[in-house]
Amino acid sequence: MARVRYFAAAAERAGTDEEQRFETTLGELRDALARERPGLAAILAQCAVLVDGSRAPDTAAIDGDITVDVLPPFAGG
């Protein structure tokens, strides 16, 4: 089971800061989130999604003791 953490606008649109998910790949997680949370789906493609602190392909396994961070684009200087 993956621990998914949402930050800033992603947390607002997901309606939570953190949750446990049962999908087994990053692609499955992205698809499930887009289906379940249309507000999050609107920005998910622009979000950085990190698996244990690193970018990963949609084929990356996320089962087991994995942390997935969903970070929306940040503005600033």
Topology, element by element:
Layout: E1 2-6, H1 8-14, E2 18-21, H2 26-36, H3 38-44, E3 48-51, E4 54-55, E5 66-71
Parallel strand pairs: 1-5
Antiparallel strand pairs: 1-2, 3-4, 3-5
Helix pairs in contact: 1-3, 2-3
What key phrases describe this protein's structure?
77 residues, alpha+beta, 5-stranded mixed β-sheet, 32% helix, globular
Question: What is the straight-line distance between the termini?
Answer: 36 Å
**Strand share of the residues?**
25-35%
Strand-pairing-aware structural class? alpha+beta
What portion of residues is helical?
25-40%
Outline the biggest β-sheet: 5 strands, mixed
Strand order of the largest sheet: 2-1-5-3-4
Q: Choose one word for the global shape.
A: globular
